[in-house]
Design goal:
heterodimer; A: mainly alpha; elongated; B: mainly beta; Jelly Rolls; six-stranded antiparallel sheet; five-stranded antiparallel sheet; 11 strands; globular
Chain lengths: ~150, ~150
């Protein structure tokens, strides 16, 4: 059965051009490496600035992104996607330093177990200090073995 | 569950018969609650009678006839016998008279413990008069001894 040309699946199906996403993802993962590399050349007095290294990395990404098309063919496309990935991450990293962050914290309701269906583990009984306590604990927590019916 | 035993404590199985030094035997009085067996926990010991531990008790008259009528109660008491609590309330004596059949052996429904000098007392009440010299007992548990 031929797929319906208007099907939403057609839009969702990966195409051969989507490999750029993978390369962009690799670029995003390597943004830290790129920043460290570029950061070595950032002047010392600038390094103390908040987000300076990330900004330098972002600048390098921008340069790479813009110059990559000069390399013809798939290599150029790959470089462009790679630097686009690093650029996104660095814009995010720099932005995170200067844009106030709202932290959402979910507070578990009091008296509720940590996770649904899993009651909190009961505390272990205190270690007996005397033989009286030991005997009482054993009497309450163990049963005599019953062999046979 | 496992319980860590403090250092210097000896854990051994406990089987008490009528000849055990902790046991004091007594005869009964007809239709009067009589302490036929008084078990005083040995010095430096604490005993656990756990759920499922056995109690076998056989009382006989002076004519060596086994007593099958009457009731038995097991109480635990402090060292001064001031506070007594029944761990087995009045139960027909025939329930305790089997030793060879696992399915008919009397077993405690829940565990209890006694420390040194405290008591486990077996009380009999019935028309027959038990002769202390013919009483037979088996009580199992765990004994913890301080070394």
């Amino acid at each position: 059965m031929a797929p319906d040309p208007d099907s939403i699946l057609k839009d969702l199906t990966p195409t051969k051009d989507d490999w750029r996403l993978l390369v962009g993802g690799v670029g995003a993962l390597n943004a830290g490496w790129l920043n460290a590399f570029v950061g070595k050349y950032v002047p010392e007095e600038m390094k103390s600035q908040e987000g300076a290294i990330e900004a330098a990395g972002g600048l390098a990404s921008w340069v790479g992104y813009k110059l990559a098309p000069r390399v013809k063919g798939s290599i150029g496309e790959a470089l462009k996607s790679f630097f686009l990935g690093t650029l996104f991450v660095n814009v995010g990293l720099v932005g995170k330093k200067y844009v106030p962050q709202i932290e959402f914290q979910v507070t578990p309701p009091a008296g509720m177990p940590e996770s649904a269906g899993m009651p909190a583990e009961s505390a272990a009984p205190p270690a007996p200090q005397t033989i009286e306590e030991l005997a009482a604990l054993v009497a309450q927590t163990s049963a005599a073995k019953y062999f046979g019916k | 569950m496992s319980i860590a035993i403090p250092t210097g404590v000896l854990k051994v199985p406990l089987t008490i018969s009528e000849t055990h030094p902790a046991v004091t035997l007594a005869g009964s009085v007809a239709d009067v609650e009589s302490d036929v067996l008084t078990i005083r926990v040995s010095r430096k010991c604490a005993w656990s009678i756990r759920e499922g531990d056995q109690l076998y008790l056989l009382l006989k008259t002076a004519a060596a006839a086994t007593i099958t009528a009457g009731y038995v109660k097991v109480v635990i008491a402090d060292a001064n016998k001031v506070m007594k609590i029944a761990v087995v309330d009045w139960t027909p004596i025939a329930n305790f008279a089997t030793i060879d059949d696992q399915t008919k052996m009397f077993r405690f429904a829940a565990g209890f413990s006694r420390a040194e000098d405290e008591y486990i007392i077996i009380v009999y009440k019935g028309a027959d008069v038990a002769d202390s010299t013919k009483t037979a007992l088996k009580l199992t548990g765990i004994s913890f001894t301080e070394l």
